[in-house]
Amino acid sequence: MSDQEIEDFDVDNMSDTSRMIPGLPPYNMDDQLLPMESRSRWSCWIWTLFVSGANLLAFLVNFIVLAIIFAIVLTPTIVVVYFGFKCHSRVLHSDASYCKTLLDDNSSSALIILGFVMMSPLIVLAMALYCGLARRLRLFMLFQPYTRALYKGVRWRWYDEGGLCSCLREWNSHVKAWV
């Protein structure tokens, strides 16, 4: 092909619609991608502290829920390993009556091994429970972007979704479908 044919080929294949458009523009004026108004310096600092505090509080809520779920699910493993270590003669060697009558070194070792073998599936179960609960309660929607501190008029992330837990969206919806 000559250079002229290559230029004609390139020009013919290029059009305005061939550009990649990420999606249709929003129809609501509040959601337009217009430049937002910046906050003043002091207002920006105050809002940054406020958003940081809100994100720290969201982290603490997530961590507390995670710790409670893991403590409940891993309780059998903790108990089995505790009694295994407590009654073993080379570790703690307790003088409790159940250690002398029921558990010797071999059974204490078996308890320790059983506890650590049981731990892996229980950790997976605890993580699955936490992820399901965090999704249902929308715990990750508590985290706020720092654009709230920089620009005026940025909405809370969970506000449009029907509030936390999406309770308002479920109550306001009239159409329900089974899938």
UniProtKB/TrEMBL annotation:
Keywords on record: Membrane, Transmembrane, Transmembrane helix
Chief localization: membrane
Membrane topology category: Multi-pass membrane protein
Record's GO cellular component terms: plasma membrane
Molecular function terms, GO-annotated: PDZ domain binding
Transmembrane feature ranges: 44-74, 110-133
Superkingdom per UniProt: Eukaryota
Cellular compartments annotated: Membrane
Family to which this protein belongs: Belongs to the TMEM88 family.
Name of the protein this chain belongs to: Transmembrane protein 88B
